[in-house]
Amino acid sequence: MSESDAPVLRAEGLVKTHHGEGAPAHAVRGVDLRVTRGEFVAITGPSGAGKSTLLHLLGGLQRPDAGGIRLDGECTDGWSEARWAVERRRRIGIVFQFFNLVSDLSVADNVELPALLAGMPPRKARTARAELLAELGLTGKERSMPGELSGGEQQRVALARALVNHPPLLLADEPAGSLDSKGTREVMRLLSRFHQRGQTILLVTHDARLASAADRVISFFDGRIADDAELDAGPPPRRAGTSGVLELRD
Ligand SMILES: Nc1ncnc2c1ncn2[C@@H]1O[C@H](COP(=O)(O)OP(=O)(O)OP(=O)(O)O)[C@@H](O)[C@H]1O
């Protein structure tokens, strides 16, 4: 299988136990998962089921106790923290519930930073940033600091930051978890729109309504996949970069 035919993400036999103050938490108890190019997969399940731990493993933010992960067919076994950091910039965009923007950098700098760190020439990074912010309805906010923005706006900046390097995979961990209903609708509409353009997305949410935006829903329970179902297919995803400007209406 050539690398381009390989699944964007493949996990086999993933296991992760957290050792905290109390009894060990068996968060992920043996997970096999394959995500193909262009899929929008939601992982849903009750609080404490292990969804965030799984997403952290898949993004290389935590190491599994057992099992392995392949990105575009490439085995990640033995990757160091530094290697994961480099590969994440190129291959995996991540958005979190609480945005995790750099509070003392402007909106523009937050979005440009990962592009510059990935080696994009400054002029190209500025153009990429401007295009994404325009698409996300944030033109005019470039000089704002994150603390001056609403939660929904901050999450849109986080989305721009996650996508500025055109990563093959977007991981989203409860991206609407701290937003009001308007912000939630915006974020979900944007995820759907990027998916329509061909973006592969893995969304973790405890909210079954949000999961229904995906075309495949995995029910996660007690550290294991309890169900894995394709939903009715919507219009086929288009190739990346072929659609027009986003509209953000209520
Ligand atoms: N860093 C940690 N140290 C110790 N235990 C942890 C740690 N992170 C998670 N856990 C435990 O692992 C289990 C799974 O947690 P996880 O956050 O992955 O679940 P979740 O499904 O994402 O939950 P939620 O929807 O509430 O975010 C829980 O019992 C949790 O308390």
Summarize the structure.
The chain has 250 residues and is an alpha/beta fold.
Protein model, in words:
The protein is of the alpha/beta class. The chain has a domain at about 35-60 and about 75-215: P-loop containing nucleotide triphosphate hydrolases (Rossmann fold, 3-Layer(aba) Sandwich), CATH 3.40.50.300. About 30% of the residues lie in helices and about 25% in strands. The protein contains seven helices and ten strands. The chain has a six-stranded mixed β-sheet, with helices on both faces. α3 (about 105-115) crosses α4 (about 120-135), α3 packs parallel to α5 and α5 packs parallel to α6 (about 180-195). The model is unreliable at about 240-250 (pLDDT under 50). The site of adenosine-5'-triphosphate has 13 residues, from β2 and α1.
Give me the CATH architecture of the domain at 37-62 and 77-217, please: 3-Layer(aba) Sandwich
Relative helix content: 25-40%
Major sheet: arrangement of strands: 6-7-8-3-9-10
Q: Name the CATH class of the domain at 37-62 and 77-217.
A: Alpha Beta
Number of helices: 7
Shape: globular
The SS-based structural class is: alpha/beta
- Which hetero compounds are present in the coordinates? adenosine-5'-triphosphate
Organism: Streptomyces tendae
Region (Disordered): 229-250
Keywords: ATP-binding, Nucleotide-binding, Transport
Domain ABC transporter: 9-247
Which characteristics define this entry?
Rossmann fold; 25% strand; four-stranded antiparallel sheet; binds adenosine-5'-triphosphate; alpha/beta
